[in-house]
Amino acid sequence: MRDLAPILKAYDIRGVVPEQLDDDTARAIGWAAAHVLAGGSGAMVVGHDMRPTSPQLSAAFADGVTSAGVDVVMAGLTSTDQLYYASGALGLPGAMFTASHNPAQYNGIKLCRAGAAPVGYDTGLAEIRALIDDGVDSPVAARGRIGQRDTLGDYAAHLHSLVDVTGGRPLTVVVDAGNGMAGHTVPAVLDRPGLTVIPLYFELDGTFPNHEANPIDPANLVDVQAAVREHGADLGLAFDGDADRCFVVDERGEAVSPSALTALIAVRELLRAPGEPVVHNLITSKAVPEIIAEHGGTPVRTRVGHSLIKQTMAETGAVFGGEHSGHFYFRDFWRADSGMLAALHTLAALGADDSGRPLSQLLDPYERYVASGEINSTVDDAAAVTARVEEAFGKAADVVTDHLDGLTVEFTGTPMWWFNLRPSNTEPLLRLNVEGADRAVMERVRDDVLRVVRGPGEGAA
């Protein structure tokens, strides 16, 4: 058995195979997860991505689950949001074998309780680790049984029941699956009248021969951007490896801000659920809460992290939630995140626009300010550097600060600007996000903050 400490993350389990995660480890985690997550349900649903190690690791996990007397529903190849669908529709806790956007040598497990409820370190993973460390087991009357269930068709039908993309103007969309699980789900979901899909890298290949399946890195958007321009497409979609995140490129080949998509989807959800709360994390654009409020919704601000978004949605009854990282959460999808559902919303909004505007013009009202993107700096003492920044910026006139997640400083005068500086959970880094009324303002604030952060002895990550 490997030491679990290096592979237990805040929201999932992830490590290098087989050095950190092997069959024995997966089997032990399955046994413990059966005790922690499946006590009342008597079964778990297990899916896996296209990585070469995923089938074997998921089989070992299932063996561990059944050794605890719990049944397993093997869903086979699934995207992460397809696994969430299975958990929600079947009312079972779930396990998804994937390392998302990480390189090929990695694998991992995303766990959820019945109804796709999130499992993080403080909501199940620490308990699983403690159970494995104790190594105490009680005999079971009989091993659990393993069955098979393909959920792809039902998953696609459920998404179509939530967002109808038929009946609008015809659209041509380039989709870059990055050799990940979107190559499995897109043919089932986007095979709809009026949609012409131009596929890039749909072959399932967990060695990622074309580029990393990590669309938050601009280098991995180059191919979809070029294809949109080449084919004169209406838009492009790029998914990460397990297809729970979707990034959008407009008709010019320009990347669309996830904040703009959050605002667009929030407006659409508020049309059918007027006045409802909408959750956004504190890194999204200031335009997001403004637009939510302008359309009659109640903006709810949270810290960064998908478990926090889901928890806040449950507490407030929010209809939708969005993050700057390209995760989008839907109340009607068990508050789980679905890149495919976000893509359908984008296609439906564009197709239904009677004026025939291109995507860039449709989204223009939601792109109000200029953001820096996340800038990492290596520091020796994150707390001391943060205090230094607060001393430099937090006491000026017309400035307010808060510590919801790191340090946020906002200028309440004109021109508008704000920044957030927060520490990494796993590395000696400070992450800076800046937004301003225009590019000149943003760059001035960005450079001023970085000069303080990267004083003597500090530097870029």
UniProtKB/TrEMBL annotation:
Location of the Alpha-D-phosphohexomutase alpha/beta/alpha domain: 8-133, 154-253, 263-369
UniProt entry tagged with the keyword Phosphoprotein: yes
One of the GO biological process terms: carbohydrate metabolic process
MF GO annotations: metal ion binding; phosphomannomutase activity
Keywords: Isomerase, Magnesium, Metal-binding, Phosphoprotein
Top EC category: isomerase
Entry-linked NCBIfam families: PRK09542.1 (NF007088)
Protein name: Phosphomannomutase
Organism from which the protein derives: Jiangella mangrovi
Upper lineage: Bacteria, Bacillati, Actinomycetota, Actinomycetes, Jiangellales
